Structure prediction request, 238 residues.
Amino acid sequence: MRIQKYIADAGICSRRKAEEMIVKGLVKVNGETLDELGYQMQENDVVEVDGQVIGAPEKKVYYMMYKPRGYVTTVKDQFDRPCVMDLIGDDIKERIYPAGRLDYHTEGLLILSNDGAFVNAITHPKHHIEKKYLAVINGKISEEDVEKLKRGVVIDGRKTAPAKVFLSEIFKDKCLVEVTISEGRNRQVRKMFEAVGHHVIELKRVQIGPIDLGSLKEGRIRKLNPNEVQALISLAEK
Ligand code: URA
Prediction:
């Protein structure tokens, strides 16, 4: 691997910036200032950038988790509530973090990775990756309100993008609705139902693009296989 890629993969700066730093004499390998851009890294090389020794770049890894209710997706919580990072076992050494958020009370599919470009690609709103939720709401929703949700409702002063909404089951005093949205606004599904007069009792994300929660058990994490990672990347590149 070329040194500029090594520096970029370690998250220090872009390859181009790394080349500039080499030219300026700010990069040392094993204590010697580097004077060539094409240097190929050797095993056990120690690299210093601007006086700081940098760690070896981590292998890129990709996981999915079934987040339980009652966990936050932020890395640290101001109220010290349980955090999804607590569910990551010691066997995962890489510094993975969640791609996108789920509310404290929401359960379901979460994707985690240490690949910043991948996380940005699948969470950026411009890529419109669909996320499917199952919502248990109070009362029985009318056909009219289902249509309103499909067309878009105003939340936080702005209309939501068209959504797929399907009334799946009706119980005595509540019903189950499948909702697929391509935005990721704050508490979006809950606010959409509030906008048509219903309260979300339970919310579960079951799909992100082509990735389905499947039979993964609550609180568990598993590696995404290369096909699943590629399917997500292809979707973001569309
Ligand atoms: N919509 C919500 O209301 N909450 C979530 O966690 C995700 C989508």
